[in-house]
Design brief:
The structure is a single chain. The protein is an alpha+beta fold. The protein is built from 32 helices and 22 strands. The protein has a seven-stranded mixed beta sheet with strand order 11-12-13-17-14-16-15, sandwiched between helices. A hairpin with a 4-residue loop joins strand 11 and strand 12. It is globular.
């Protein structure tokens, strides 16, 4: 789908899928019987909210309707959940869950072949086999977003869901069509990721079926399943009594019930079979398990986990309280591991904690760390030492404080999401409660209860909960996805079992005491001018030191503030000897630190504060964001200002940056989707220009700590700064916080539109671009991208209208390539506006296909665009495309992060927030004549772009 945001070419869905398919670890979590703690009665909060309507039809179909007022629209999220997935397959039905769930999109009782897609497009609804339906171990879910519930779109979505239960046609032609497309989808996943995940599940929960019934299906499995077995699976599992319909949005509860009854009421009840009992996890402790490493993955994943089994569904006040305290215990463990492991001495790059309900009545929780390079064995050693120490000595106060703050902050973020216009997120939350068989509460009520329990529970209860987890299970270490040379299992066991603690003791002695961070203000920076734009609600203030700060209050961003800071400059200022330095300097924001204050000190000082930082190096700027609660704005700005004033890149932070760059380079070499963006960047710049193109391991190795530190200091000291503070904060409070932080920085030039312009020697290649190259992909698929350059960043009207053209193009491509010719397993389209030169902007479409079909697909993609130009656009296509563009715009205008980054571009790129607010007018004024005019301006041999990336090895040409 074309989106009204800049899309990085490298993050096509193929790339996203391959990244999402990276190995994750899960482990069963024991239900601990808590002792102590405050026993205040919270049971009243567990009663279902009166605004939520739920019930069931006579045939067993259940429903949950959450009416929400979103500001006058008719937006509704529709979810149809059928409680059947891969765990319900019998031995002769492997692959049935994936194919059966998608057959309704080809042809069904109420829709002829291709009719459902055309009608969805006419309503501007998103429709994609990879997004509109997903299959997991225990469920199949259909997800639709509706812009106007009164237009017939709601009835359309519900009828598709009802046909999935009672209207699937098991015709050989229909099945073979869907089989071909599903096989192509499966080829997008690398076999290493699929095998690693299956192996991991089987080692952690042996006999559970999680390894034998994977959610990532092998293409060979899909080829073998026959029509009769698919029909048997469907008849046994896709029944009304296993079906739940969820509606969230601007809809009257009674009207929603009537619509559900019309679509699902005639389905006949059927007896449900089950195959899940044989896969239920047996209770009892698990032995320590160490898996073999799998070659081919870009990084070593070291999972240090705690395994137990117990009931995890939340149905009572006591269950809920135990669940919250278990979450606190697992988060406290993560806090301890972060402080003990991520000190820059070893290869560990990430420590994560998870707790969620998984299979049957099992509770899943775990703590894991990801590492790469030569330090992974040391990381395993150290992680185990820390776990042993916690099991022996318990937690420290700082661990519990940070854990409590993060658990409450997470539920608060989810509560904020539920109160914004993201109906889909609310629907997903409702489905999670349905999955657990629990009472459906509003996310705000859930947050209130969680915060109450987290605030009242004694610290010792968290330690006791974790001790009981160890009593019920045992520590389980799993190593998967290793690259290069890995030790044999005896070496791994020796590293894990060596628990002397010497390394940890040495590191603590060397580090010394951790200093506290002082957020007290100095003398405030003065405001020399201030403007207010009533059309946008944006206030812009210029401080005496040249820093520009914008503010906008967003009513929907309840208890949320996003701060965006743009420092003018970036990769365009580099040369051959400083290539990569801007990216290395931006890495400081992953772990903020400044002179005299280490990463560990900042991490400790921020424990208990709900603040998240992120930084990125662009061609013409370094952009930094912080997300926080309104009460944390001053602290967040303090960290950002201190880091800008005296940035400190620690050796460990630089090493982690090098490891990340190297791992991403490996991904690009092994994935056409990841490689696409790199190919485009390199093709659009002169080969002798050293500044551009994605970095690789050799580039990262050349970046030395001293050089990166000097570059960061010099760049941040002089860079013009433009900042925004967007969200739930008043103007006076925002500017007051900025005055005592950003306003205190050394003086610098004011930012203006010229700061983003490259000089004439920028090295951009003009003229047509055609690149055919190869990669070492393990999955048998290729990528093809076609399009035209020429969409300028400042030509916002054309940008928004070309989004409409992109939506038409994508819908037509899906119809032609997928339904008629069954070629592409994925088709997507987008608009990327030029930042500094119009030539770098483009309208593009990309598809993932089999390698031998890549030329044919590329030709058809351009031919479809030619047909749109010659024959025009159908009325129903245009209406749906406009509605889709409007939906994307409204989501962006309600997103504080999008507004923060966009408003940083106001003076920087010669734009204003009013350009975005006028986008709706541009979209609505777009007609068939305007689309043809846009194509006339783009269709030129000098503007054409064709990129193809094959999995085979062959000579490159350009």
């Amino acid at each position: 789908m074309a989106r009204l945001t800049n899309r990085t070419l490298g993050m096509t869905r193929a790339g996203v899928i391959l990244r999402a398919a990276a190995v994750c670890a899960t482990v069963l979590f024991a239900g601990a019987t808590l002792q102590g703690g405050n026993e205040r009665d919270t049971s009243a909060l567990l009663e279902q909210d009166p605004g939520i309507l739920s019930g069931s039809l006579r045939n067993g179909v259940t429903y949950v309707i959450v009416p929400r007022q979103n500001g006058g629209g008719r937006d509704v999220a529709v979810r149809v959940r059928i409680g059947a997935g891969t765990l319900d397959e019998r031995d002769d039905e492997l692959g049935a869950a994936h194919l059966v769930g998608r057959l309704v999109f080809t042809r069904s009782a109420h829709f002829e072949e291709g009719e459902a897609r055309r009608r969805f497009a006419a309503h501007g609804m998103e429709f994609d086999r990879l997004q509109s339906v997903y299959t997991r171990h225990g469920e199949t879910v259909y997800a639709f977003g509706i812009s106007d519930a009164g237009s017939g779109a709601l009835e359309l979505a519900l009828q598709v869901g009802a046909d999935a239960v009672g209207g699937v046609i098991f015709d050989n032609g229909v099945v073979e069509k869907e089989r071909r497309l599903s096989i192509e989808d499966a080829r997008l996943f690398s076999s290493e990721s699929r095998d690693a995940r299956s192996m991991l599940f089987e080692r952690l929960v042996p006999g559970s079926g999680l390894g034998e019934r994977p959610t990532l299906v092998d293409p060979g499995t899909l080829e073998q399943i026959d029509v009769r077995s698919m029909a048997a699976y469907h008849k046994r599992n896709f029944t009304p009594e296993r079906t739940t319909v969820v509606l969230v949005g601007e809809i009257d509860g009674g009207a929603g019930v009537r619509a559900i009854a019309r679509a699902f009421g005639d389905l006949k009840p059927r007896e449900s079979g089950t195959n899940r009992e044989r896969w239920r996890v047996a209770e009892g402790a698990h032995e320590r398990a160490i898996s073999s490493a799998i070659q081919g993955e870009p990084e070593t994943t070291v999972e240090v986990l705690v395994a137990s089994s117990a009931a995890g569904a939340v149905r009572t006040e006591r269950d809920f309280k135990e669940s919250v305290v278990r979450d606190l215990a697992i988060e406290a463990m993560r806090t301890r591991l972060r402080r003990g492991v991520l000190d820059g001495s070893f290869g560990a790059r990430e420590v994560a904690a998870n707790a969620w309900d998984f299979v049957g009545v099992a509770r899943v929780s775990g703590v894991s760390a990801i590492t790469s390079g030569d330090g992974w064995v040391e990381s395993v050693h150290r992680l185990n030492n820390e776990i042993e120490r916690v099991r022996r000595d318990g937690f420290e106060a700082v661990d519990v404080r940070g854990a409590r703050a993060r658990v409450v902050a997470q539920t608060r973020r989810e509560a904020r999401s539920a109160r914004s216009r993201t109906n889909g997120r609310v629907a997903s939350w409702v489905l999670s409660r349905v999955r657990m068989g629990s009472t459906v509460l509003s996310r705000q009520r859930e947050y209130e209860l969680t915060a109450q329990i987290a605030g009242l529970t004694e610290d010792e209860a968290i330690g006791r909960a974790f001790a009981e987890i160890f009593a019920a299970g045992s520590c389980c270490t799993v190593v998967v996805g290793a690259t290069g040379t890995v030790p044999d299992e005896s070496t791994i066991v020796q590293a894990i079992d060596h628990a002397s603690g010497r390394v940890l003791a040495d590191a603590r002695e060397a580090a010394g005491p951790l200093p506290a961070i002082d957020f007290e203000e100095g003398e405030r920076g003065g405001i020399v001018s201030i403007e207010y734009d009533p059309a946008t609600g944006m206030t812009s203030a210029v401080f005496a030191n040249g820093v520009i700060v914008h503010h906008k209050k967003v009513e929907s961003a309840v208890n949320r503030v996003v701060i965006g800071v743009a420092l003018a400059g970036g990769r365009s200022q580099e040369n051959g000897s400083t290539r990569g330095y801007t990216s290395a300097a931006a890495a400081v924001w992953d772990a903020p630190a400044w002179c005299g204050t280490s990463v560990a000190a900042v991490d400790t000082a921020l424990a208990g504060r709900d603040i998240k930082f992120d930084g990125a190096a662009l061609d013409d700027s370094m952009q930094v964001t912080a997300e926080c609660d309104p009460g944390e704005v001053r602290a967040a700005l303090g960290v950002m200002s201190s880091t800008i004033h005296e940035p400190l890149i620690e050796a460990g932070a630089l090493r982690r940056w090098r490891e990340t760059v190297t791992a991403e380079a490996v991904r690009r070499r092994s994935s056409p989707g990841w490689m696409l963006g790199d190919v485009f960047v390199r093709a659009t710049h002169r080969a002798d220009d050293p500044r551009y193109g994605m970095l690789d391991g050799e580039d990262a190795a050349r970046v030395e700590l001293g050089g990166a530190q000097r570059w960061a200091e010099e760049f941040m000291d002089r860079a013009p700064i433009e900042a925004t503070i967007i969200g739930d904060i008043e103007r006076r409070d925002a500017l007051d916080a900025a005055a005592g932080t950003l306003g205190m920085l050394p003086a610098r030039d004011r930012i203006d539109a010229q700061d983003s312009k490259h000089d004439d020697e920028s090295g951009l290649v003009r003229g047509s671009i055609e690149v055919h190259t190869t990669c070492d992909a393990s999955a048998d698929h290729a990528m093809v991208l076609v399009g035209y350059r020429g969409v300028g960043y400042t030509d916002r009207e054309s940008y928004y209208q070309i989004n409409v053209l992109g939506n038409v193009w994508e819908a037509r491509l899906a119809e032609v390539l997928q339904e008629e010719e069954q070629l592409a397993s994925w088709v997507g389209c987008g608009v990327s506006p030029g930042v500094s030169h119009d030539a770098s902007g483009m309208i593009w479409a990309a598809a993932a296909v089999r390698g031998e079909e890549i030329e044919r697909v590329g030709e058809r993609m351009l031919a479809v665009l030619g047909e749109i130009h010659e024959r025009g656009v159908r009325d129903e296509e245009l209406e749906g495309a406009r509605q889709q563009a409007l939906d994307g715009l409204r989501v962006n205008l309600d997103n504080p992060r999008h507004l923060a980054l966009l408003s940083c571009d106001m003076r920087y790129r010669g734009l204003g927030m009013a350009d975005e607010l006028r986008a709706e007018e541009s979209i609505l004024s777009c007609d068939a004549w305007r689309l043809r005019e846009l194509l006339n301006g783009l269709r030129d041999d000098d503007r054409r772009v064709v990129l193809t990336i094959r999995p085979e090895k062959e000579p490159q040409s350009r």
